Amino acid sequence: MTNLLSNIPPMSYLDFDALPTSAVILSPDEIDQAAVFSNQVINESKQWQAYLHYLALSAFEQWLQERAESLTINREQCTILQPVLANFISGVANLQVGAFKVCLIATGSLSDEMVNIPRVVVDLPEFIPHFYVLVEVLEEQEAANVYAFLSYEELQDNLQTTSLQSDWNYQLPISCFDSNPDRLLLYLRCLESSAISLPVIPSNRSAILANIQNQLVELLPQLQSPKRELFEVLTWEQAAAVLTSPELINWVYTLQTQAAKENLETGSAKPESTDAFASLQDVIKLITQPALNAGRWLWDELDDLAASLSWVLLPSFADASQMRPIRSPEEEFEVIATQLRQRGLEIPVQARGAYQDLLLAGIPLRLYAVTWHLLSESDKPEWSLLLILGAPALSSLPSGIKLRVSDQTGILDEPGLNAESEDSYIFTRVVGNWDEKFLVSVSLIDGVEVTLPPFAFNLERLRN
Description:
Layout: E1 24-25, H1 28-38, H2 47-67, E2 73-74, H3 83-86, E3 92-97, E4 100-107, E5 114-118, H4 120-123, E6 131-138, E7 143-151, H5 152-159, E8 164-166, E9 169-173, H6 181-190, H7 205-211, H8 213-219, H9 230-233, H10 236-243, H11 246-266, H12 274-288, E10 292-293, H13 304-308, E11 312-313, H14 329-342, E12 352-360, E13 363-374, E14 382-390, E15 402-407, E16 410-413, E17 426-433, E18 439-443, E19 449-451, E20 455-456
């Protein structure tokens, strides 16, 4: 990937006479960090804006610390620090200052009479702030100036009379902003955040996404090129659904990152693939479909969804040796489990499983799912899901059958059965954090497919 910042001329010596008295001096480390960070933005046309916005964040934090030490700054959810969002949002949204949300708009020059404000931070409640703050970044002088601000309510009033719109940006005259940033400090210190009413995030985001999922499956793979903008492919309504879905915007970012890497290695990106469409369909299903809670199996319980789909609990593995010698799904599973142990895949005794019988194009199938929780050195506990696809009575599976498992990042595994295989089943095992879900699909070579509801693992709400 080309680094546009490599052409930036060396910073000149500071001309103190030319700087505003309120200017914040940027350290060499902050400038270096901005350069490194902006190169993570895969859309090369936005690397420069990301560079300016990172410097604006550093300058604004320093400006606040020098003037209002009592104010707490939280940059944890800041969009500019998340390459996925920085690639699509030109601004520093979701910066928390005390009880207020602040959005920084960086500009390299205040000579223009109009200010571009991304529609994302005006129309989508997930990113709307209490205050919009203009920061003039004087990068050649290694300085920045917190110049002016505007509250959300004032912005809405001005949009009714003075704004223009293009490429999903609102343009406002700079005269609409309050050029006395000391008043912003006063508001941040003394005003109640409830005094500036912000719109509530809609509770039907998943329903909206479900209604347009077919459109998105058709359109989103067209965003494979890192040079393509959302507004070139999607309507605003479609883009809003993507931008407010972390899983989908991550999917687009991953798609573009892979294309950029391929382009760097081979000189050209691969055309859109069927894998991209299948992966996208799976991600949308993970977001929009209810999930069955495999965590309840550890308590010998099925949730309502699993029960309605005729899942059947297997006996605990500690009791497996007590099963009667009859042909049953439980006995069939013990035969498979023994073969898996011989391959080096151990199933712990605390694991619990269930099975479901399926019909795919008239072919009877049986899917076993086994889950257990894992000890993890990280802060986030993990769980394991073992999936085994076979046929009743351990009969042969059709050649070409595949078992696909996806999470929010895309397809994790897609084992299949070829004509030469002597196995009577196929299996895969995946691991995720407790808040991660997995989607499982079974398909035949002619494209016939069945997708099960997502598998989740929730131990905290077992008794709710």
